[in-house]
């Protein structure tokens, strides 16, 4: 089993951060994840089984907004990449899943510098890492390609996919503005 879970956020405007940091973000969040999958798939195919879990995000369903400029795009890539790998390798016995969690109680916010802002959020919408892991493993074992843990996240993903993009964009922009650190 491969779990692509390395990542970080950059809650600033694109050019407010040196290109090297943006490049490191892309390498960590996309290039390395794809490279690891590339390396393990031949052995999984040879064995006729294997699992790949890519950590995506609710941001995969979101239009881009100010701050974290690359984050929604990379998370969208991980979602689509997982779907493509599933289409290519399901018949060979591989189970590929993109998990799209929302707020999860991890060190991510502290590392991104938005911990104090996140602490003010409604805790009812937060998930534990254990709950996300359980939903992900259960989904992967059942052959689900996209797992959105939590009913509130499932509802939000449905709305982001169903509502007109300008409406979703304005809602996401209003909600995410407080996380933009410029």
Please explain how this structure is put together.
This protein is of the alpha/beta class and 182 residues long. The chain has a single domain (2-179), classed as Rossmann fold, CATH 3.40.50. The chain is 52% helix and 9% strand. The chain contains seven helices and four strands. It has helices at residues 19-47, 71-89, 108-112, 115-119, 129-141, 151-162, 165-176; strands at 2-4, 50-55, 94-99, 146-147. Strands 1-2-3-4 form a four-stranded parallel β-sheet. Helix 1 (19-47) packs parallel to helix 2 (71-89). The mean pLDDT is 86.
Write a brief caption for the model:
The chain has 182 residues and is an alpha/beta fold. The chain has helices at 19-47, 71-89, 108-112, 115-119, 129-141, 151-162, 165-176; strands spanning 2-4, 50-55, 94-99, 146-147. It has one domain: Rossmann fold.
**CATH fold category name:** Rossmann fold
- Average per-residue pLDDT, rounded, comes to 86
Shape: globular
H and E order: EHEHEHHHEHH
**Topology, number of strands:** 4
Oligomer: single chain
Set down the secondary structure blueprint.
Blueprint: E1 2-4, H1 19-47, E2 50-55, H2 71-89, E3 94-99, H3 108-112, H4 115-119, H5 129-141, E4 146-147, H6 151-162, H7 165-176
Parallel strand pairs: 1-2, 2-3, 3-4
Helix pairs in contact: 1-2
Which tags fit this structure?
182 residues, alpha/beta, Rossmann fold, single chain, 9% strand, 4 strands, four-stranded parallel beta sheet
């Amino acid at each position: 089993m491969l779990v692509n879970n390395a990542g970080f956020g950059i809650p600033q405007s694109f050019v407010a951060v040196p290109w090297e940091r943006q490049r490191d973000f892309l390498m960590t969040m996309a290039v390395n994840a794809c490279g690891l999958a590339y390396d393990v798939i031949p052995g999984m195919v040879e064995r006729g089984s294997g699992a790949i879990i890519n950590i995506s995000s609710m941001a995969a369903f979101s239009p881009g907004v100010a701050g974290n400029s690359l984050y929604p795009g990379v998370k969208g890539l991980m979602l689509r990449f997982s779907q493509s790998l599933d289409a290519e390798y399901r018949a060979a016995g591989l189970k590929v899943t993109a998990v799209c969690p929302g707020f999860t109680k991890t060190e991510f916010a502290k590392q991104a510098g938005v911990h104090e802002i996140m602490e003010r959020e409604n805790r009812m919408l937060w998930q534990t890492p254990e709950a996300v892991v359980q939903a992900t493993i259960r989904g992967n074992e059942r052959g689900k390609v996209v797992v959105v843990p939590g009913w509130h996240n499932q509802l939000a993903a449905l709305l982001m996919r169903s509502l007109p993009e300008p409406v979703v964009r304005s809602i996401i922009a209003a909600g995410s503005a407080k996380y933009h650190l410029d």
